[in-house]
Amino acid sequence: MTDAAAARPEARNPRGFADRRGRDLVAERRLVQRVSAVYERWGFEPLETGAFEYADALGKFLPDADRPNEGVFALQDDDDQWMALRYDLTAPLARFAAQNWETLPKPFRRYAFGPVWRNEKPGPGRFREFVQCDADTVGSDRPEADAEIIAMACEGLQAAGLAAGQAVIRVSNRKLFDGLFEAGGVTDPLQKLTALRAIDKFDRLGWEGVAALLGEGRLDESGDYTKGANLPLGVAATIEAFLASAGDAGLSRAATLERVAAAGGLGAIGEAALEELAAIDRALAAMKVDQSAVRFDPTIVRGLEYYTGAVFEAELLLETIDDKGRAVRFGSIGGGGRYDDLVARFTGERLPATGFSFGVSRLASALRAAGRGDEDAVRGPVVVIVFSEADMQHYLDAVSELRSAGVPAELYLGRAGMKAQMKYADRRGAPAAVILGGDEIAAGQVTIKDLDAGRALAAGVADNEAWKAERPGQRLVPRGELVSTVRSIVEAARTAS
């Protein structure tokens, strides 16, 4: 190996960061566009904040104050202040609201979308950079504000392409567990947080696994040991009865609340949480949100520490498979809740807030795994084939006419022959190729090859004579009919899809 070769960098992705093109980008942009339209229809205004925030503005979720680069990607600015890439879109909102509260309409309703970054161990379907799309109301403590966010999230899921029964939003209230802990004499914040993280694994580990994490701890299949919360046995038993109250998915929201109340041990804080959930249920019913679309589920706690009340989690119910045909469970595709203490970090005054976030990248991947990605196939431009340098003006005129008529088109600018150019057009997903050879130019004509028709015939999609007659693979038409002929091919392809 030469010294020059040894000095060349290896072309590789950083772990957890993916290159995306074509279909993936189109899918995500389409989801963002559709969900954003829902947010705007509900009266939320767009807001964009920078990718970086000062590390202290991101708060207690950074584990290392001296060098805050665990959990986030951080760097030190030239003024020695630490900055970090945002790990979600909510912490920047809290900073913005605190900084501009005097001039904002109150309550302040905003939506935002964009990439977020987390310095975590990457894995299958788990990236360090991904896209979120949020909507939040800051300045309202009314349960109806939570209900509106939930109902809007339901409409957002529909806009994303999910029909009834293909997703559900599960709702609970973090204060239910606050009441349980208070009634059981559990006051240590770390002990409570450890218990909540254990309960958050209920759907994956079942009661046996959660019980171990509420007690001494648990050894998982890989041999890793997770230290438990060491809750008193009586509190753990109360939590078991509490979680069992969530077992029947067929119950109405009101019936679920009755069963949770019957489990007992909630204390005054927990009873207040039940009243808040009942108010949310009444508002959802008034907005005609179906019982199957939104369910109350006391096992939902959400992972981030800043939630203070109602919490929501959207779960995909579609059957999904991986690229090897194996069934996979995507689970959560979005979530949120009430976070009344986040802005107070800056102002010292409690400011109620509630919101919901779609995991756009995750939802797009889930839809594709469910076989719902065909609509996101990227349509390439019409390709104008090049034969001779001497006829370049004719090719440039043709591609300009198509673009002026609103038809995406490109002139082939490589140096390959016609066969390779046709292969290029096919790989680009072009609906048609425009052929202006010497004979066509001399006769004032143009040959247009319908590439979509050719693909369909090759795949055996349509083999009847009538279809072949309507969609011939190649047409020779007068030069003046170039645009109308190409447009008919493009429109026919759009209608068929």
UniProtKB/TrEMBL annotation:
Residues in Aminoacyl-transfer RNA synthetases class-II family profile domain copies: 40-381
Catalytic activity: tRNA(His) + L-histidine + ATP = L-histidyl-tRNA(His) + AMP + diphosphate + H(+)
Residue sites binding L-histidine per the record: D88, L89, T90, R118, Q132, D136, R302, Y306, Y307
Gene Ontology biological process terms from the UniProt entry: histidyl-tRNA aminoacylation
Enzyme class at the top of the EC tree: ligase
Pfam families per record: HGTP_anticodon (PF03129), tRNA-synt_His (PF13393)
Keyword Plastid: no
Keyword terms, alphabetized: Aminoacyl-tRNA synthetase, ATP-binding, Cytoplasm, Ligase, Nucleotide-binding, Protein biosynthesis
Molecular function terms, GO-annotated: ATP binding; histidine-tRNA ligase activity
CDD domains: HisRS-like_core, HisRS_anticodon
Compartments, as annotated in UniProt: Cytoplasm
EC id: 6.1.1.21
Gene Ontology CC entries for this record: cytoplasm
Gene3D superfamilies per the UniProt record, alphabetical: Anticodon-binding domain, Bira Bifunctional Protein, Domain 2
Source organism superkingdom: Bacteria
Protein family per UniProt: Belongs to the class-II aminoacyl-tRNA synthetase family.
Oligomeric form and interacting partners: Homodimer.
Name used for this protein in its record: Histidine--tRNA ligase
Gene: hisS
